[in-house]
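Protein 1 of 2
SEQ + STRUCT:
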Amino acid sequence: MKPEIASQASSVVHARRVAERLALSNPMVFASVMEGDPESGDFGEPKLIYFHGNEMPEEVRNMQPINGPARLWSTSICTAE
């Protein structure tokens, strides 16, 4: 996986909507969220919000899907070739 764009989103809903829009013009897109405490720097494992593409990379495949609302600290969207 060769990342082209990584960006932050304000919520899970925002990340999904941006990822869906990017999927119209990119061969692979995924959105993920990590919960944690920014003051201590303690973050959990990333969870998958959305994936679009023919072949899911191992690091994305290993993410747990998000179940319901998350206490958000870091939500990101990544596109790749």
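Protein 2 of 2
SEQ + STRUCT:
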Amino acid sequence: MTSVVGGRNATHLDQVRHRGYALDLEENEPGVRCVAAPLFLGGTAPVAAVSVTAIRDRMPPARMEALGHGLRAAIAERLTARFAG
């Protein structure tokens, strides 16, 4: 959940779609960061999501990026194949 004000919401969602995962940079809970990636089953709307949450000290920006890429790849390779097929 990333707080976005006004017209920036569409730009933010475009960035999330392009990246393939979303980040929570302590917007929901101070000191806590999250990375989440969607699960698609053949459509354009996600049917579920997988999230990793940790305290800020254990999830610096480089770790968040690595987790985002890892989640996206794992979902695409494993979960989608398992549930779609």
